[in-house]
């Protein structure tokens, strides 16, 4: 009787070990498959976002080599202007004009009511054009500007076209 009890307990222990081994090996396989699926989804999402970002930045001075080459006057004896330093300078000069009591003159809009129009966001498209978003707190619009970098490194702006959205 004692031998058969020990035999049953031994067989039961072997079966429990087999079931435990199968459970944990399948759990590891399931975890690896889930990790692979998640990794694939994340890579696809990253590639999609990177593609959208590249598409959105197509019209920008940072990614337009022809526009960047416009500022390289060193071949003709002139001074080269680094576009990496130019972008924040142009943006800052344009935003500094928001301090004007009548509003930024390069929004293409006169002051309406008590609030002045100021430029909120600026994107430099290439060596000549800027698009900017402006508002007076109630009305919003966009403006397409031309900008010029003079020989003395001063910057001039010119309103090309402005649009004010209806309420």
Question: How would you describe this structure to a colleague?
Answer:
- This is Hydrolase.
- Keywords: Membrane, Transmembrane, Transmembrane helix.
- The chain crosses the membrane at residues 6-24.
- By secondary structure, the chain is α+β, with helices and mostly antiparallel strands.
- It is built from three helices and four strands.
- Strands 1-2-3-4 form a four-stranded antiparallel sheet, covered by helices on one side.
- The protein is elongated.
Sequence-ordered SSE layout with sheet pairings:
Blueprint: H1 2-56, H2 65-70, H3 83-96, E1 118-124, E2 129-135, E3 140-149, E4 155-164
Antiparallel strand pairs: 1-2, 2-3, 3-4
Structure keywords:
single chain, 167 residues, alpha+beta, Hydrolase, four-stranded antiparallel β-sheet
Mean pLDDT: 88
| Distance linking N and C termini | 94 Å
- Structural class comes to alpha+beta
Residue fraction in strands: 15-25%
Radius of gyration: 33 Å
Portion of residues in helices?
40-55%
The parts where pLDDT drops under 50 for at least 5 residues are none
Element order: H for helix, E for strand: HHHEEEE
* Overall geometry: elongated
Helix count?
3
How do the strands of the widest beta sheet line up side by side? Answer: 1-2-3-4
Characterize the biggest β-sheet. Answer: 4 strands, antiparallel
Total E-strand runs: 4
Transmembrane segments: 6-24
Keywords: Membrane, Transmembrane, Transmembrane helix
Organism: Flavobacterium frigidimaris
Protein name: Hydrolase
Give the gist of this structure:
With 167 residues, the chain is an alpha+beta fold. The chain contains three helices and four strands; from the N terminus they run αααββββ. The chain has a four-stranded antiparallel beta sheet, covered by helices on one side.
């Amino acid at each position: 009787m004692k031998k058969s009890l020990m035999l049953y307990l031994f067989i039961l222990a072997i079966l429990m070990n087999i079931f435990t081994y199968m459970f944990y090996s399948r759990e590891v396989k399931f975890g690896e498959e889930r990790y692979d699926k998640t990794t694939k989804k994340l890579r696809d999402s990253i590639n999609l976002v990177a593609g959208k970002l590249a598409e959105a930045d197509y019209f920008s001075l940072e990614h337009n080599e022809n526009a960047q080459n416009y500022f390289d006057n060193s071949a003709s004896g002139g001074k080269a202007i680094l576009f990496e330093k130019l972008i924040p300078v142009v943006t800052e000069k344009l935003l500094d004009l928001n301090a004007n009591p009548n509003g930024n003159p390069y929004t293409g809009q006169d002051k309406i009511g008590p609030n002045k129009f100021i430029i909120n966001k600026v994107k430099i498209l290439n060596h000549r054009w800027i698009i900017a978003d402006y508002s007076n707190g109630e009305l919003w619009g966009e403006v397409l500007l031309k900008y010029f970098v003079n020989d003395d490194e001063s910057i001039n702006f010119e309103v090309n076209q402005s649009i004010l959205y209806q309420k």
